[in-house]
Amino acid sequence: MSLGLTAYGVAATLPMTENPTADFSDTPWWLSLIKAVAIFVYLLISTLLVIWFERRVIGRMQQRPGPNRNGPFGLLQTLADGMKSMLKEDITPARAEKVIYTLAPLIAATMAFVSFAIIPLGGTVSMFGHRTPLQLTDVPVAVLLVLAVASVGVYGIILAGWSSGSTYPLLGGLRSTAQVISYEIAMGLSLVAIFLYSGSMSTSAIVSAQSSLWYILPAFFSFAVYVITMVGETNRLPFDLAEGEGELTGGFHTEYSSMRFAMFFLGEYINMFTVAALATTLFLGGWQAPPLVSLIDDNVLGGGWWGLLWFTAKLWMFMFVFVWLRGSLPRVRYDQFMRFGWKFLIPITLAWVVAVAFIRGAQLGFLGDSKLTFAGRELSVATVVIVSIVAVIALAAAWIWDDKRAARAAAEDETPPEEIDPFEDGYPVPPLPGQRLAEPTPRLASSRQPVLTTASASSTAGPSTSTAVKEEDHA
């Protein structure tokens, strides 16, 4: 197949391959059901382990032991916490919308599990006499399915905040929804480069296309943007602004308790595994063995059930990054976080996608029979690469200049006045360097006189004095 593109003076003919998917022809329905249950158990066990892992690692980073009582090395502490959540009293606010209040945590949790259905956990293996991929399902637009399901999960957040019937959950739901949607845009744009390199949106086809080179190398900038956006997408530190204990008392799930709160907690961790699994699939070769290991013996250490081992190892590498960020970085300010997403990540990712499109078009054009032309002139790969890099650098420089200009304008607006009243707020305030004290006016001088009243003085002075003192106190 071939695709002809003509827009804004650019003409090219890019060869395209078919969009293959995994072969499920020898997979009966009952085997698909077994794989669905296996994925569910895999994610639940991984969630129990990662909560324990997070508490232990952060404990070591803060020079404390972490959980070490329930079970060996504290491994059963997460299970004990889950049982405690089940036994807690489930409280529903009087002003809550009962049906939506219950439906919101279910949406947030189930959507996280659905996204994992298109992730290939390994190659083709033999199960109960059938040859089947270690993947529940695959479609030609599997990656878009993940983004769509993540967008549906946002409904759980906004509905939880609205249905609680309280102000703080509503504010938390609005803020969290704006954050997730904003960073989903940059996340989707960062994946376009992978589609251009692989020529497919199927996860199994993208993994197969990385047999010789992982896409973390040619799409390094997309990988960096994706890592940033996946942290913002999952509301993890330093981007856990959805909870914001200092200003929102807990965010959209403030009014939730017992297992309803646990469903949000579970959905957050499953989302962490989902975005980490997608990063492993798109940038790190998926279930394939590392290049040095695959050179030794790809059949023994790279295929079959070994793929599940390599996939899990890569997945937990990203989980360690989540934990490391939480133990190292403080929470950022909300306006800075949103400005970074809208004014830097999205524009520069757009420029990167355009650059990759030109580079990929030039490579395919010069390696195939067609040519990439602009205004009637043939372009070399080196020219396209240089122009693309210069465009990305210019965009980054423009953003930095605009940010510094805004900072200078804010600093000028916050210039302290030259003359201040030290008693303006009711207590003496020393002047800053370059400031001088204002001359006291008669009204200010009288207001600075202390008014002392005692019970004995009021009784001695009589009713008129007591009334005058009360009027003065009232004034």
UniProtKB/TrEMBL annotation:
<keyword id="KW-1278">Translocase</keyword>
<keyword id="KW-0874">Quinone</keyword>
<keyword id="KW-0812">Transmembrane</keyword>
<keyword id="KW-0830">Ubiquinone</keyword>
<protein>
    <recommendedName>
        <fullName>NADH-quinone oxidoreductase subunit H</fullName>
        <ecNumber>7.1.1.-</ecNumber>
    </recommendedName>
</protein>
<feature type="transmembrane region" description="Helical">
    <location>
        <begin position="261"/>
        <end position="284"/>
    </location>
</feature>
<keyword id="KW-0472">Membrane</keyword>
<feature type="compositionally biased region" description="Acidic residues">
    <location>
        <begin position="412"/>
        <end position="424"/>
    </location>
</feature>
<keyword id="KW-1133">Transmembrane helix</keyword>
<comment type="function">
    <text>NDH-1 shuttles electrons from NADH, via FMN and iron-sulfur (Fe-S) centers, to quinones in the respiratory chain. The immediate electron acceptor for the enzyme in this species is believed to be ubiquinone. Couples the redox reaction to proton translocation (for every two electrons transferred, four hydrogen ions are translocated across the cytoplasmic membrane), and thus conserves the redox energy in a proton gradient. This subunit may bind ubiquinone.</text>
</comment>
<feature type="transmembrane region" description="Helical">
    <location>
        <begin position="304"/>
        <end position="325"/>
    </location>
</feature>
<dbReference type="Pfam" id="PF00146">
    <property type="entry name" value="NADHdh"/>
</dbReference>
<dbReference type="InterPro" id="IPR001694">
    <property type="entry name" value="NADH_UbQ_OxRdtase_su1/FPO"/>
</dbReference>
<feature type="transmembrane region" description="Helical">
    <location>
        <begin position="337"/>
        <end position="359"/>
    </location>
</feature>
<feature type="transmembrane region" description="Helical">
    <location>
        <begin position="379"/>
        <end position="401"/>
    </location>
</feature>
<keyword id="KW-1003">Cell membrane</keyword>
<feature type="region of interest" description="Disordered">
    <location>
        <begin position="410"/>
        <end position="475"/>
    </location>
</feature>
<comment type="subunit">
    <text>NDH-1 is composed of 14 different subunits. Subunits NuoA, H, J, K, L, M, N constitute the membrane sector of the complex.</text>
</comment>
<keyword id="KW-0520">NAD</keyword>
<feature type="transmembrane region" description="Helical">
    <location>
        <begin position="29"/>
        <end position="53"/>
    </location>
</feature>
<feature type="transmembrane region" description="Helical">
    <location>
        <begin position="139"/>
        <end position="160"/>
    </location>
</feature>
<feature type="transmembrane region" description="Helical">
    <location>
        <begin position="99"/>
        <end position="119"/>
    </location>
</feature>
<dbReference type="InterPro" id="IPR018086">
    <property type="entry name" value="NADH_UbQ_OxRdtase_su1_CS"/>
</dbReference>
<feature type="transmembrane region" description="Helical">
    <location>
        <begin position="212"/>
        <end position="231"/>
    </location>
</feature>
<comment type="similarity">
    <text>Belongs to the complex I subunit 1 family.</text>
</comment>
<feature type="compositionally biased region" description="Low complexity">
    <location>
        <begin position="453"/>
        <end position="468"/>
    </location>
</feature>
<feature type="transmembrane region" description="Helical">
    <location>
        <begin position="181"/>
        <end position="200"/>
    </location>
</feature>
